[in-house]
């Protein structure tokens, strides 16, 4: 899929782009709170600040990128609507953003997407098209729908408008919790960590940016080791939002340049962290969003890092899964 339908659009993202995105999406995006926990810090051995994007509109950071994209579409194109593919959080975010400007939205979602995410998305009135993530090409399906309807595809991560919007997480976080040694973020396709790394490194060149992937969804980890984008089979990790099979074409070079390392967490460590956050901090975080906290809780960061910012990227978890924990 082409990065953009506008040949004049730059494929790079700057700090100015992220600042502009913050202003553009201000009417729809919430300024999420930052929490701390002494009991977490004692077990992790670090002073930890949690950026609670699980409290965000739509339950995840994805509204930032989706809204910036939708609000950046030229007026003459808006009427044709938008189409997006996602396991849930990006789909819901696009539905919310489209609803806010009164345009149609079609969401391509996997058949095994969490029911809670599907129903939350459906509540905003989009058309939902299901696909099999093991056999179907979701990008090709989205492109086909766009060609048939004239809608614009809203990529979940690999587009400068999306990346700039998602980078507002770090812009906001470092204003709330300055002087961090490191910021830790999950990696799916890489939009959140790429955009946030650009913002964080501009605000504090000494800050260390660390990515976290599930052990069974380690495409970025392998790609960094290989020095090139490396594709993996469809991962079966509990972290449904981190099941990307290959890093983004635009996001990966940013990760190579600005992200110090990627650490891996097991599904069991993610499960234990979801339970810890719910029972001890009294906050509900989905498995994908809990992965960075798992990396800190299970002491996978370098020991010299003392003050760490953790982005809890979302809180949309299936009730059946939550009960099973």
In short:
The chain is of the alpha/beta class. It is about 45% helix and about 15% strand. It has helices at about 15-25, 40-45, 60-70, 75-80, 90-100, 115-120, 140-150, 160-175, 190-205, 220-225, 250-260, 265-280, 285-295, 320-325; strands at about 35, 45-50, 80-85, 105-110, 125-130, 150-155, 180-185, 210-215, 260-265, 305-310.
Task: Describe the SSE topology.
Elements: H1 15-25, E1 34-35, H2 38-44, E2 47-52, H3 62-72, H4 75-78, E3 82-85, H5 89-101, E4 105-110, H6 115-122, E5 127-131, H7 138-149, E6 152-153, H8 160-176, E7 182-186, H9 191-203, E8 208-214, H10 219-226, H11 251-258, E9 261-265, H12 267-280, H13 287-297, E10 307-312, H14 319-324
Parallel strand pairs: 2-10, 3-4, 3-6, 4-5, 7-8, 7-10, 8-9
Antiparallel strand pairs: 1-2
Q: Which structural class matches the secondary elements?
A: alpha/beta
Radius of gyration: 18 Å
Overall shape: globular
Q: Terminal Cα separation, in Å?
A: 38 Å
Written as H for each helix and E for each strand, in order along the chain, the element string is: HEHEHHEHEHEHEHEHEHHEHHEH
Major β-sheet, in short?
Answer: 6 strands, mixed
Describe the structure.
By secondary structure, this protein is α/β, with parallel strands linked by helices. Helix 5 links the parallel strand 3 and strand 4. The protein is globular, with a radius of gyration of 18 Å.
């Amino acid at each position: 899929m082409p990065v953009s339908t506008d040949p004049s659009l730059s494929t790079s993202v700057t700090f100015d782009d992220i600042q502009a995105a913050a202003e553009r999406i201000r009417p729809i995006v919430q300024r999420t709170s930052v929490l701390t926990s002494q009991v977490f810090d004692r077990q992790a051995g670090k002073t930890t600040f949690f950026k609670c994007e699980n409290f965000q509109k739509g339950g995840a950071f994805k509204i930032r990128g989706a809204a910036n994209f939708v609000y950046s579409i030229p007026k003459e194109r808006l009427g044709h609507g938008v189409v997006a593919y996602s396991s849930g959080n990006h789909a819901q975010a696009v539905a919310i953003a489209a609803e806010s400007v009164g345009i149609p939205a079609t969401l391509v979602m996997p058949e095994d997407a969490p029911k809670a995410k599907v129903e939350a998305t459906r509540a905003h009135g989009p058309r939902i098209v299901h696909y099999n993530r093991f056999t179907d090409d979701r990008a090709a399906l989205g492109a086909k729908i766009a060609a048939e309807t004239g809608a614009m595809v809203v990529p979940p991560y690999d587009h400068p408008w999306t990346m700039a919007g998602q980078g507002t997480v770090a812009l906001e976080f470092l204003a709330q919790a300055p002087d961090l040694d490191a910021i830790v973020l999950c990696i799916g396709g890489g939009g959140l960590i790429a955009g946030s790394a650009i913002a964080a490194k501009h605000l504090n060149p000494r800050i260390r940016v660390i990515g976290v992937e599930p052990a069974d969804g380690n495409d970025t980890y392998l790609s960094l080791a290989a020095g090139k984008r490396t594709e993996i089979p469809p991962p079966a990790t509990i972290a449904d939002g981190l099941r990307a099979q290959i890093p983004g074409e635009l996001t990966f070079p940013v990760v190579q340049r600005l992200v110090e390392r990627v650490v891996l967490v097991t599904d069991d460590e993610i499960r234990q962290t979801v339970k810890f956050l719910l029972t001890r901090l009294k906050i509900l975080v989905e498995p994908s969003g809990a992965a960075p906290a798992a990396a800190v809780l299970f002491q996978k960061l370098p020991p010299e890092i003392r003050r760490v910012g953790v982005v809890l990227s979302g809180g949309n978890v299936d009730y059946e899964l939550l009960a099973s924990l």
